[in-house]
Amino acid sequence: MDEVTGAQLIAESLKAQKVDYMFGIVGVPIIEVAMAAQAAGIRYVGMRNEQAACYAASAVGYITGRPGACLVVSGPGLIHALGGMANANMNCWPVVVIGGSSDRNQETAGAFQEFPQVEACRLYSKFSARPSSLEAIPSVIEKAVRTSIYGRPGACYVDIAGDMVNAKVERSKVREVSCCPPPPVSLADQGSVTEAISVLKAAKTPLVIIGKGAAYGRAETVLRELIEMSGLPFLPTPMGKGVLPDDHANCVAAARSRALLQADVILLFGARLNWMLHFGLSPRFNPNVKIIQVDLCAEEMGNNVRPAVALLGDISAVATQLLLCVRRDGWKYPSNAEWWSTLKSKIAANAKISKALALQSTVPLNYYTVFHHISQLLPHDCIIVSEGANTMDIGRTMLNNYLPRHRLDAGTFGTMGVGLGFAIAAAAVEASQNTGRRVVCVEGDSAFGFSGMEVETMCRYSLPVVVIVVNNNGIYSGVDSETWKAMKQMGELTSVAPPVSLLPDARYDEVMKAFGGRGLLVRTVEELRSALQLSLSDWERPSLINVLIDPSSDRKQQEFPWLTRSNL
């Protein structure tokens, strides 16, 4: 009699749905699920915290278009993963979380780590269910995977009772469920497409905004053709960077504030008018701006600003419709328009300011000097993971991306702690595909603290991630070691130390060394360049470069007084 366990059914069902990566932390009752996943050909990466595991699994979903799996134990383990599920939902990234739970015959009896997991996950996911029997596992897994990638992508949860993991059933009684096909592609209404082209042609100061929805939707080829044929300026959102190269002649990211403020028509591809784009409202936007909104989610249309034209459909497909119209009409926005002169002038002025800051070499270093030299050494095809406050904001403007889905950061939810999980996911994918691309994780010292123990995961699996900690001794800003010593003389640090401060000159590089990785402490430009070159040449182990900078280093003066901390 050919029998199969619940653990085997879970693993085989995931593999049948082309889920190739699993991240998690094992324990009762799901150890056998991880073992079965490996036996089924799924790559399993054991993490140090369920949050980081879920961040990693969701990043795989964004990078590959197929969800990663996150495996967690019951109760507290699942609760830790909720942060990753919420982040995936906000970013619109597919992930499937598999959570063990208490045995069915112990429900309501105060079982070990008993918790209403299916109910709890409904707030953080698109789909949350427990298979009613072993025979139902393949169907539930298929629905979870399908739901995670169809429509607006997001998180899905499958609950597995402890007594189902090792229970057995005859394989002949289990209905085989085939792999769900890719999401169906929908086109925008052709009349609306024609109207959108008319609005664009009438614009005096048009702008295209490319969001991470365009990156996820694999729209890079058609968008490049559309931009180059139409001659329109474009602005990428943080994770829209690389859909078209940041050094493309039509990219106006260096004049972001001016472009947003003075554009009279904005063509919005896969980006939401939320806090990251200042809600599309004055004073950051022209109060009379006309929005042409391209999105695959009908509910997103009209959020904060009612679009002049709504184009509902697959980003790549709708971009193709627009391209065909531009090509048919032979229309191109004039390269000698006054709008282009305005944008290019602002780009040059901002570049001059940034360059002056970047060329400073006094010790301690500032952010701009650090990023200037990092940018000169990074390979064009590397995946850049970034998180932190100033570290992420300034790094976004100075570290170019040239390929789509090659930037991962705090995203729509502004989540700190995602960096190392994202980097591990990217490195795992790159290693399995043998692409030869480097993964570089640029962290603020505060951001590194959220999931710093994941450097052990990198060392354990020999993932050659280069972690750069830009260390300013605090959150936003810190104090130097002498000031710290003086404060200790003033009284209890809990009463006198600024809440934003962290331990001065903390040796994060020693943490990496402790697990067998390469740790490097740098203070000068020469040390930074040498350390980065050495780290990029090492494909055998991860590296951590601890860059000590001026604790009072900040962003350059902004153009508009109402622009405060985040310019995402």
Automatic annotation (TrEMBL):
The name under which this protein is listed is 2-hydroxyacyl-CoA lyase 1
The annotated subunit structure for this chain is:
Homotetramer.
Kindly tell me the pathway this chain contributes to: Lipid metabolism; fatty acid metabolism
The cofactor named in the record is: Mg(2+); thiamine diphosphate
List GO BP terms, alphabetically. Answer: fatty acid alpha-oxidation
Location comes to: Peroxisome
Catalysis performed (reactions): a 2-hydroxy-3-methyl fatty acyl-CoA = a 2-methyl-branched fatty aldehyde + formyl-CoA; 2-hydroxy-3-methylhexadecanoyl-CoA = 2-methylpentadecanal + formyl-CoA; 2-hydroxyoctadecanoyl-CoA = heptadecanal + formyl-CoA; 2-hydroxyphytanoyl-CoA = 2,6,10,14-tetramethylpentadecanal + formyl-CoA
